[in-house]
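Cross-posted from the bioinformatics board.
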Amino acid sequence: MADIVRVVVDAMGGDNAPGEIVKGAVEAVNSRDDIEVILTGRKESVDAELAKYTYAPERIRTVHCDEVIETAESPVHAIGGKKNSSMVVGMNLVKHGDADAIVSAGNSGAILVGGQMVVGRIRGVERPALAPLIPTEDGVALLIDAGANVDARASHLVQFAQMGSIYMKDVVGIQQPRVAILNIGAEEEKGNALVKETYPLLQSCEGIHFIGSIEAREIPHGGADVIVCDGFAGNIVLKLYEGLADTLLKKVKEGMMSSFRSKIGALLIQNALRQTLKSFDTSEYGGAPLLGCRGLLVKTHGSAAASDVKNSIIQCVTFKQQGINDKISEHISRRKKSDMTDA
Amino acid sequence: MADIVRVVVDAMGGDNAPGEIVKGAVEAVNSRDDIEVILTGRKESVDAELAKYTYAPERIRTVHCDEVIETAESPVHAIGGKKNSSMVVGMNLVKHGDADAIVSAGNSGAILVGGQMVVGRIRGVERPALAPLIPTEDGVALLIDAGANVDARASHLVQFAQMGSIYMKDVVGIQQPRVAILNIGAEEEKGNALVKETYPLLQSCEGIHFIGSIEAREIPHGGADVIVCDGFAGNIVLKLYEGLADTLLKKVKEGMMSSFRSKIGALLIQNALRQTLKSFDTSEYGGAPLLGCRGLLVKTHGSAAASDVKNSIIQCVTFKQQGINDKISEHISRRKKSDMTDA
């Protein structure tokens, strides 16, 4: 049997906490033998939820914490001030090696800040990056960074490309992932100052398969496996994906309700349509990992249901068993050494 | 009757030139009394197309030019080098007051460069901005800038907000348009360096109705009427709109073809669906104006059909008759004066 992976789950984070969070944790341990879960949160509430389910009790334990970081709190303030919150306590378990990963549906900014300030970066990594999978016509693409670094530098983007490639290859299973930089045209001379500076660095970066620029139009068409960008641009892509899918679905529904004829049609296609649109839901692909930290942090969306929490936990298992952080550490440091040789 | 508006149409620009371009020009003059069109391009080809239609001959004339700027050419090089191209000749007609506006489906970059280098900026405008209308749940929003200025400054974004407000009010007819800055969160303290610098300037800018930040998710929901951003971010939004709408439609169609039952359903809803999705097609809203130039430039997409060309020409009429450039000039210069008073 593979090694046991120990995942902290922030039982108090997200709109549906602790109910759905605890349920997802139970489903995860019941679905596989190689997971142990540590739930951080108010013991009384968490244990009351746990009492509803059947599971191997030695594989889920609760660590009591008084405090909760709220969604609207300032991230830096919350991480610095609420040492006994379910999120910070959980992050400290990862930091000290008592757990391999943490999953949270709580305050996104706090997860990003905590990744840097509490868990800490892998040696050599300049900036951790948030890297969600987004749906494409025939699969998924990794968007890196999706909001952790709004004013990134070229050297950060090169590391995002390296970390993203490792993740897509070893967690998602894409051999030789195609890496592209998000740009406003396919030609090499296009782009803003950051893209122009980063482009040649990606061209000369070893160990990645850089295919050049990608226009946003080509992302849903599956034009690349790893989309490299700063956190501001990446966040726009991620949010617009959500908003547009939502609006188009609403429009399609309205269209179908516009006549008697189309209403009958709607009844006949509703199952097929639901299936199709589900494959295009950004929340279907587990949580977004924050790559580059010592230990794994997975941010799942605020409205996460039990199935999202379960998927996010299972994602941590693959991450750990594939030794992603060792590979990142090795790859990044190799690059650093060669930089020094060049200089 | 209102004043006649004289519109140059670049007959050689775009994938469907000159056939669809000339056809669109004829449709425009046949639909209204207040338009005159000047077609720039190879006279022989253009006149051969014109010969297919019936129209008042005094309202369409052809200006012969030997050269054509190709789609793949370097914009700066093309505008500087091809003085006798259909695009540059047309722009010079606008510059010298022989026409009010130019519509082109040709090389986008060349249109942006020509707007600055040939036609020239309105006094006081720091940077012209490309401002397409994009569909929302219940109408349209103006995206400014969508690609003319990839590395914009805060002062540019403030002018984009001013120009965009005037356009939405007087061309689109939205009273007190809601102006928002594209950001990665709704909170005031969020954003990259550019957004943080621009935010307070928009708050204190007179004559616009600034409502704060908008996340990309809220754009399709109709969260603002004028979306202010740099050209890099704006271009991502515009292109992702196109790509995602395309992919989702394809997915919906695939879903409907997945069973016999859903195929029957598909037949019943296809008309309703086509109508719905048409309202969400970014190319349905005429061309994108380049705001801030002396005279109007309208960039219509490369694959423009006759109806797109016609819509773009008609858009120029409203623009001219509403005196948009006078209003921009007045508004921007008023701001400049008050800046000086402050200093």
